[in-house]
Specification:
alpha+beta; four-stranded mixed β-sheet
Length: 238
């Protein structure tokens, strides 16, 4: 991915960080520093880095699940909106795609359970613990949110791929993708409407979901056409 810098290679997978993610860290650190000084800036930056560690582990969940089906992952890139694991190819079998899609959120479930056992249980029973800034409580809460958000049946989230995999057991891949993309676009309109009423950030999420769903549908349609009309059939023969 352009505008990204390599950090480290783990299990043959290159971990990269997008330049916009670095700019986000600098911007947030400056904002927290101006409000609460160096201590506030340091604590918030540490939390954000731990949050994105959870995101990286989430993406490695996808990568290792794909590896089990013989699909390599060349790299994982950290973006301000999360992480992207770039698979060398998409799984052909619906159940393979379902397992790969679920593997990411499952990692966050395991992390959340670990944090719950480590002391997050009391935080959930006492919501003020989250507001007080308890690190375990915050990480537990954010991992639960990551699971719920990623499992929404909307592309490009994992839930959209789960929905497509389930639909593909009853219809062809292109049709399943189109249905799942339409559902995703519906969620995008809901996010956009809620953003107008509540939080403008949801409008950004809406655009991200709508564009991701549209691109997924277009790619699936192109793939379906290429299958039905191979390149050899379009060649001019003398």
């Amino acid at each position: 991915m352009s505008w990204s810098l390599p950090i480290v290679r783990i299990a043959g997978i290159q971990l990269r960080i997008h330049i916009t993610f670095l700019l986000l860290i600098v911007w947030l650190a400056f904002g927290y520093y101006s409000q609460g000084g160096s201590a506030a800036a340091a604590s918030r930056v540490i939390f954000i880095l731990l949050l994105f560690l959870c995101v990286v582990l989430h993406e490695f969940g996808h990568a290792f699940a794909a590896k089990a089906f013989g699909i390599n992952t060349p790299d994982i890139t950290l973006l301000p909106i999360g992480g992207v694991a770039r698979l060398e190819r998409m799984p052909e079998e619906p159940m393979q795609e379902l397992i790969i899609a679920v593997a990411g959120p499952l990692v966050n479930v395991v992390i959340a359970l670990g944090l719950f056992i480590a002391g997050g249980a009391q935080a959930l029973l006492n919501p003020t613990a989250v507001e007080a800034g308890g690190l375990i409580a915050q990480l537990l809460t954010i991992n639960i949110i990551l699971v719920l958000f990623n499992l929404l049946p909307a592309f490009p989230m994992d839930g959209g791929r789960v929905l497509r995999a389930l639909l593909a057991t009853r219809m062809n891949y292109a049709r399943a993708t189109q249905v799942a993309a339409t559902v995703g676009q519906g969620f995008a309109f809901v996010f956009g409407f809620l953003g107008l009423l509540w939080n403008p950030f949801l409008i950004f999420i809406a655009l991200f979901v709508y564009i991701g769903a549209s691109q997924e549908a277009a790619l699936a349609q192109m793939k379906d056409v290429s299958r039905r009309f191979p390149v050899s059939s379009a060649m001019v023969r003398e």
